[in-house]
Amino acid sequence: MLIPPPCYQNKLWEHKIRTSCMSEGPRSEHSVKLLEEQDAPDQAKNLRQVQRSKGKKARDDLVEAHMMWCRSMKTPSIQGSVYISRHVELPPPYLPSVAPFEEIKKLYIEGLQPESHHRGSYSLLRAITPSIRMASTITILEDENNDVVTSQFCQHEEDIHLAAGSIPEGSACIIKEPWLILSTDGSYVVRVDHVNDVVWLPKADSRMPSAWQSQKIDTVKTAKQWKDDGNESLKMGKPHEAVESYNAALQFGATLEEAQIIKLNRSLANLKNGCFEQALEDAGGLTIEATKSKKGLYRAARSMYELNSFQESHTIYTTLLAEYPDCDAAKNELRRTEDRLREQDLG
Predict the structure, then answer these.
(1) Quick check: 195 pLDDT over 60?
(2) Contact 318, 290 (CB under 8 A)
(3) CB 298 within 8 A of CB 329
(4) C-alpha dihedral sign at 199, 201, 202, 206
(5) Pairing with 278, which of 60, 71, 247, 336 sits 20 to 30 Å away (CA)?
(6) Cβ atoms of residues 282 and 266 within 8 Å
(7) Which residues pair with 105 in a beta bridge?
(8) Whether pLDDT at 140 is above 90
(9) Per-residue pLDDT tens for 264-306?
C-alpha cells in the first residue's frame, strides 16, 4: 500500500473520502459474515448489494485517483522517499482455475459479486491506465461495457507482461474465474494470485474485441516477414513483441517447416518473458526432428526447470548432452538441476 508524501496526502485522501465509503467498508463485510453465520442469507445478500454500491466508483473517479497515484510515484522528490512503502496483505490462499476456457462463460464487471471466485466464468478486460508496481502490480481494467475495476496482480514475476515490471496500456487479457475482494479503503479489487489464471491476448487473437484493436494486423506480410519481425524484436530485447509477431506468422500461412522454426523461436521468447508453460508447449509440441534439436531440447529442459520439474529437466539435459556433448550452457544447467534434486532429497 502506498503511503503518499504530505504534499499529496490531502488531495488523495480528500478524493478517497469523496468517492468511497472508507469507514464502513471492512465493518460492512464483517456484518455480512455475521449474518451468514446466523443463517440469514437474504439479509446478508441485501447488505452485500448496499456494500457493493458504496464500494463501486465511477469510471472517471477511479481513473483520476489512480493517475494521481502514478504521478506521485514519478515525482523525483518522492522516488525513494520514506513515505513510499510496501504493505503486503495476505488473504486466504485459493486454488488456481483449472477449467478449460471452452467450458466457462463470459462475465462482465457489473456481474462480479464481492468475495466470490466466480467459478465457471471469465472476464475479458483491457488495461486503460499505467500500472503501479509495488508488492503487487496494480492497474485499472475495463470491460466491453466500459465499466472499470481496479486489478491487483500478485506473485506474477513470471508473467509475460509483468516480467518487465509493468502492464502496457491497451493490453487485453482474460481473467479466469475472477476473485473480487474488498480492499481496506472500502472499494473493490479484482485480485489475481495465480499466473495461469490470466491469459494475455495478442493483437491477432480472435477473442480480441475489434473495438480494442488499436491497429489492424497487416495481412499483406508473409509468415517469413512476421518471423523476421519477431527475430528482430528478440534482438532488441522486446520478447513480448516477438511473441506477437510469431503468433501472426503462425496465423498467416506458415508452412510446416516454417511453423517448427517459429514455435522454436517463440519458445525462446516465452522463456525470456517468464511464460514457462507456453515455452514448454512450443518446445515440446514439435516434430520429432525438431524436438531432438539442440535448441528444442535445451528450451524444453529450461522450461521444465523453471516449472520445478527438476527430474524431467535432468532427463532432457542428459539426453541433450549425449547428442551434443560440447554444449556448455547445458552442462551448467545440468549442474544447477542436480543441485535442486539434492535439495529435494536432503531438504
Answers:
(1) yes
(2) no
(3) yes
(4) positive
(5) 336
(6) yes
(7) 121
(8) yes
(9) 999 999 888 877 888 888 887 555 555 578 999 999 999 999 8
Instruction: Write the single-letter amino acid at 320.
Output: L
| SS3 state of residue 218 | coil
d(CA 260, CA 254): 9
Angle of CA points 109, 111, 117, to nearest 5°? 90
CA pair distance 90, 223, nearest whole angstrom: 46
Does the pLDDT value for residue 95 go beyond 50? Answer: yes
What single letter denotes the amino acid at residue 28?
S
Query: Shortest CA distance to 150 belongs to which of 76, 74, 61?
Result: 61
**What are the backbone angles phi and psi of residue 191, rounded to the nearest 5°?**
-105, 135
Distance from C-alpha of 330 to C-alpha of 125, rounded to nearest angstrom: 40
Our measurement of the distance from residue 194's CA atom to the centroid of its chain's CA atoms, rounded to an integer in Å, reads 8
Residues in the chain: 347
The residue written with cell numbers 506521485 in the block is: 72
Of all helices (H) and strands (E), which one includes residue 188?
A: strand 188-192
Please give the Cα distance from 62 to 55 (Å, whole number): 11
**Nearest-5° Cα angle at 163, 140 to 142:** 15
Long-range CB pairs of 204-208 (<8 Å, 24+ gap) are 204/244, 204/247, 204/248, 204/251, 205/247, 207/124, 207/174, 208/172
Q: Which of 64, 32, 289, 5 is nearest to 182 (CA)?
A: 32
What residues form DSSP beta bridges with 257? none
Amino acid identity at 251: Q
Q: pTM for this structure?
A: 0.56
How many other C-beta atoms lie within 10 A of the C-beta of residue 333?
21
Give the C-alpha separation, 136 to 165, whole Å.
10
What is the DSSP annotation of 26-89? HHHHHHHHHHHHTT-HHHHHHHHHHHHHHHPPPHHHHHHHHHHHHHHHH-TTTTT-TT------
Residue whose entry in the numeric block shows the C-alpha cell 499483406: 220
